[in-house]
Description:
- The complex is a heterodimer of chains A (275) and B (342).
- By secondary structure, chain A is α/β, with parallel strands linked by helices.
- Helices cover 20% and strands 31% of the residues of chain A.
- The interface between A and B is large, with 45 and 49 residues.
Amino acid sequence: xxxxxxxxxxxxxxxxxxxxxxxxxxxxxxxxxxxxxxxxxxxxxxxxxxxxxxxxxxxxxxxxxxxxxxxxxxxxxxxxxxxxxxxxxxxxxxxxxxxxxxxxxxxxxxxxxxxxxxxxxxxxxxxxxxxxxxxxxxxxxxxxxxxxxxxxxxxxxxxxxxxxxxxxxxxxxxxxxxxxxxxxxxxxxxxxxxxxxxxxxxxxxxxxxxxxxxxxxxxxxxxxxxxxxxxxxxxxxxxxxxxxxxxxxxxxxxxxxxxxxxxxxxxxxxxxxxx
Amino acid sequence: xxxxxxxxxxxxxxxxxxxxxxxxxxxxxxxxxxxxxxxxxxxxxxxxxxxxxxxxxxxxxxxxxxxxxxxxxxxxxxxxxxxxxxxxxxxxxxxxxxxxxxxxxxxxxxxxxxxxxxxxxxxxxxxxxxxxxxxxxxxxxxxxxxxxxxxxxxxxxxxxxxxxxxxxxxxxxxxxxxxxxxxxxxxxxxxxxxxxxxxxxxxxxxxxxxxxxxxxxxxxxxxxxxxxxxxxxxxxxxxxxxxxxxxxxxxxxxxxxxxxxxxxxxxxxxxxxxxxxxxxxxxxxxxxxxxxxxxxxxxxxxxxxxxxxxxxxxxxxxxxxxxxxxxxxxxxxxxxxxxxxx
Lengths: 275, 342
């Protein structure tokens, strides 16, 4: 059956990159190419254990190989973390709506990531950097708990910042003896003096744990970003991924189908969005 | 429209259901049950005067359905042609919710689509009501206006038979020798029964504070922060019975496990929004941690979300949840409280 929306495309795990003590990037090759756009997500099956939603962290320009960065937090991810190259997986997707990159053209794009929330933003960065001339400026502000919790370490600490196309700043909640960067929660690197952004001509894209998203959003509003220009990844409990099973409802939306990225103006009136 | 004499009912049903698996109503005490049979049996089966215990949705959206094996391409299981006889309007109207979710919203669900295609629906006007019925309060009525293949309206010595689809018309062609023209008097009898039952159900709903035409969407929306949800939630034991007997509830979980045939399989199974972990994510965050939040969510989905996305309540007033609730939470009391609070 070609039109069964519940069954994944078989995929092979070809490489595993250890990012931190509890985060790994899984490189998978689906038997058929999966074409996605930045912001869309997939459901990854670990046969016999179930599936869980993840947003790919690799370039949307590559369809025969996908990288998915996963924190070990539950049953499926626990099992996934125990797997090595050669394991059989499944990928269902792409699901959800992508970032509207057309509307970002000519604007300044501020990307704010927290912890493993940088993973989906990495796919967005790849997408943006592919056509970097289309955007006025791209700024990345990333916060992690400690220096050892930073993912994509090489790209974050040097790679992305060095090509001159990206203004990168990183902070950690708690530094260590070797840490020379900023210390504090991510909003501390959203202060106007270390941001020099133009909210009137910019959009902000945020992904991270709920508490970080909440305070980052409040900070962005404070800086003058319009609610319609703040893009938030509202990753809820997405079971079917196709707007039918009811788990991820957020007001009049389903996060899996209408999101998972929403502008703040679409969801600000919904109770308890940060829980 | 045609007239069918009472004495021809069994022959009529035998003709319509020939070659199909039959789902019909069977009476046990004062309840009807939806049962499966190889053929219509006039001694066992009847059209029923109100809805059965079991919601119709289970024929199209089963409690547990294997949607495929993993690691291999699974064909859609073959389904035999079916006929369901005696469907009441609450259950029939509820299919508008399921059709929206499983057919109209892309991607369509091939399992639901096949079940719909393979099933002939013979509906029948209610001639009586259960104490828990309140369909006029949710803009419905105890007889079908659309959505059936054939509708039967009991009129004393027989039935008015009305086709509602091409499939229904083709079936009636096969039973043409049993049908005669309908008289004005027959229609008057049908309308009198419809009026009487509608009025009775409307009155019993009004007796519970649910006036026909009341704006339940506005009432439930306005109640979100009211303490009524904490009060009602004290009696909820999170059993999920309200969801499972509901004719409109469509939520499910995709779960993986081993299939009886061996190997990994994926099942789609009914889920309950009252369960603590319904909206919880792996990291531990739970947008509806408190039972009161989850109880409100159930009403918000039915009386606010669906009116917004589909222009109708996801409640047809069947009253099953009020009868099934372990904690005796009555949907009519909840709606009345929301209306009173405005």
